[in-house]
Amino acid sequence: MLGHRFTKYTPPELKQAADFDRLLDIFMQLVTMTSGDVSEALQWLNNLDQQHNLTSDEYGIGDFIEDLKKKGYIKEEEGSTGKVVMTAKSEISIRRSALEEVFGKLKRSRGAGNHHTNYSGKGDERGTDRRAFQFGDGLENISMTDSLRNAQINHGIGDFTLLENDLEVVESEFKSQTSTVLMIDISHSMILYGEDRITPAKKVAMALAELITTRYPKDTLDIIVFGNDAWQIKIKDLPYLEVGPYHTNTIAGLELAMDILRRRKNQNKQIFMITDGKPTCMKQGIRYYKNSFGLDRKILSKTLNLAVQCRRLKIPVTTFMIASDPYLQDFVREFTKTNKGKAYYSNLDNLGSFIFEDYQRNRRKNV
């Protein structure tokens, strides 16, 4: 059969841009898995290209690397012999990619805070509900248009009269501010048994960080990692986070989280803890007390005591348990009951949705 078949014409520059965007998505996933090691991520990308033909004769991995440099995603480290590192633009891109992957089609909303409570009060956004004026209402909340209309209806169109009964007030939504501490377990068990648990934890942390900084700018998020000890890291450090040869010192993590939240002025405070194992370590003076073979009575007792302290400080702890061992889940249930917090026994696929739903639920009311 003779004839012509016409297809949509795609200019070469647009095709190359599409190829770059597709490879960039894969590269961002790989560089997260390699804890920010650009060279290793590019090596993995080369291997994937050989196996799955990701590139073409017109646009290859070499072209992609040059575009990464031109567009400011990677650069050669100063004073090094050709070592390539990520830039701040890459770190931001990774967080945005994680937000899209974990939390879906969430859109950025302007304004300060967006955690709704059952109380109405002075807020940044005016609502649509109206009510009669009450003593103590601010003048800025009076709906002049509705009040003038009421005055005309109630008193006619002769001499203008505006009485208190004519006034209507616009209800404004109260926006609570929340301080969150996210604790991430970086003990060795997070990569044991051939399962990479630290990469999903990092993605969730980056997504939560991007969510808060863009949608809830008046909220605070502090990130803690805990192994033998606990220490605070910055949001920009998340892509480079690695698991170490550590035990699990949950006690140190909780103590640091409580110390951070004591300094926060917000009434709404909470702790999210991502872990896959039991507490196996605590510090006694300058010595580490360790027991990785079971739930040690000394470590368990101190951990539960901290759960009680958090409860008294009105700090709920939500535990995201990414392990299915029954005796470990029993410990989490006891810890949660003591703290009166929450626990989710999630796999790696639904970890992000659980954290997002709990964060959005406005955990507690203002006291």
Automatic annotation (TrEMBL):
Positions of the VWFA domain: 180-278
InterPro entries, A to Z: VWF_A, vWFA_dom_sf
Protein name per UniProt: VWFA domain-containing protein
Originating organism: Microscilla marina ATCC 23134
